Amino acid sequence: MGVLCSVIRFENLHELRRLCHWGPIIALSVIAICSAMAMIDAVLWYWPLDTTGGSINFIMLINWTVMILYNYFNAMFVGPGYVPFGWKPENSQDCMYLQYCKICQSYKAPRSHHCRKCNRCVMKMDHHCPWINNCCGFQNHASFTLFLLLAPLGCIHAAFIFVMTMYTQLYNRVSFGWSSVRIDMSAARRDPRPIIPFGLSAFAASLFALGLALGTTIAVGMLFFIQMKVILRNKTSIESWIEEKAKDRINYYQTKETFIFPYDLGSKWNNFKQVFTWSGISEGDGFEWPVKEGCHQYSLTIEQLKQKADKRVRSVRYQAIEDYNGACCPLTKGLRTFFTTPCTEEPRIILCKGDQILATRGLKQWMYGEKITDLATDDQCRNDETSATKNGGPWTGASSQDGKRVRGWFPRRCVEKCLYDSETDQPLDGEKKTR
């Protein structure tokens, strides 16, 4: 009893709440349906107790299910690893190269990012995955990627069984003639071995499971190739985006500086070994990483600080002219706004008439930005960042630590540009420059 209590702790029971989310519910339902139907159809098509091939086929099905669930729950419950609350580098002078997270009350370690869903700074964050209701990062990147590999392989095996079962069962029930085709789903050929009756409902269930298996193979297979692409370059999805923004920033200001991604070790095999190890946890401690020659531990974080300063310098100030209740698909803001809502889990901003927002990027009918809660703080923050960007140095972000930041999407028709804003001639990210 004491051993059981030591295993089932409050923290473990609290983690079980991750299952109460639409992502894990759908993912586990698909796994359960495909696995159960594949085992049932395997009994109908290739009876496992008669031949060696049938036994191997059935054992492989069970093996796929176990490995898929093992890696899935590893990715969900082991988690990505979080930066400890109040963390800061050993050398206090290195703090100037790092962003500060006012929510976690700590500095963001290299390669870490704050996740709004988890409300923590995640080590080597790749993305927040709704299907595991957790982040993919330092500790679970390998398990998550193996799940993305094993799920399509298991679904391909299951899909083959579904097709062969429907073919063989229908073949025993279909009479082919030159002028007509007679299908009798009720007259099943009896077999002395104990098999599950294959009627119309079983056929429909197998067809439905086949559709799930093929859809999962395509969707999850594409995610696997995307993950492997960034892993072989020793990047994360977020770092790939940071690298693209670095090129855009350099081109925009026409500077002579060059940005070299510091963590690409030059060899795909060496990059591969940074994630896939025998322990299942990526190489390193989550705070320090091997870097390319000519770079140092804070090459990427310095670029992030420059981009953060540049983002606010190039932002445009808008004022709300209509109220907006934060609905994901607002009907009262027009059909175009309703049907073009951003397909993202990023939040929406509730706006009241007169609110001011710094917009940083935009779509045709929607914009993304940060609500200004303190104009004096914002002006000081903008001046500090402008100075940092022009001087080519990092901005520590001290002014942004005060007050709560409210960021998200809002309909473009609800705001108008502030004419007195000194940065109104700057285009938003994603919009063409008009000069």
TrEMBL record:
| This protein's GO CC annotations | endoplasmic reticulum; Golgi apparatus; membrane
What EC number(s) has UniProt assigned to this enzyme? 2.3.1.225
Q: Main subcellular localization, coarse class?
A: membrane
Q: Which GO terms describe its molecular function?
A: protein-cysteine S-palmitoyltransferase activity; protein-cysteine S-stearoyltransferase activity
Alphabetical list of InterPro entries matching this protein: Palmitoyltrfase_DHHC, PFA4/ZDH16/20/ERF2-like, SH3_domain
Membrane topology for this entry?
Multi-pass membrane protein
Q: What class of enzyme is it?
A: transferase
- Keyword check for Transmembrane helix, yes or no: yes
Which segments constitute the Palmitoyltransferase DHHC domain?
A: 97-242
Q: Where is this region: Disordered?
A: 383-405
Organism superkingdom: Eukaryota
Whether Acyltransferase counts among this entry's keywords is yes
- Report any Pfam family annotated for this entry: DHHC
Tell me the ranges covered by the SH3 domain, including all copies: 317-418
Subcellular location(s) per record: Membrane
Give GO BP annotations, semicolon-separated: intracellular signal transduction; protein targeting to membrane
Could you list the residue ranges that cross the membrane? 25-47, 53-73, 146-167, 195-226
| Alphabetical keyword list | Acyltransferase, Membrane, SH3 domain, Transferase, Transmembrane, Transmembrane helix
Catalyzed chemical reaction(s): L-cysteinyl-[protein] + hexadecanoyl-CoA = S-hexadecanoyl-L-cysteinyl-[protein] + CoA
Domains: what does the record tell us?
A: The DHHC domain is required for palmitoyltransferase activity.
Enumerate the PANTHER family for this protein: PALMITOYLTRANSFERASE ZDHHC16 (PTHR12246)
- This protein is called what? Palmitoyltransferase
Q: Which organism is it from?
A: Anolis carolinensis (Green anole)
The primary gene name is ZDHHC6
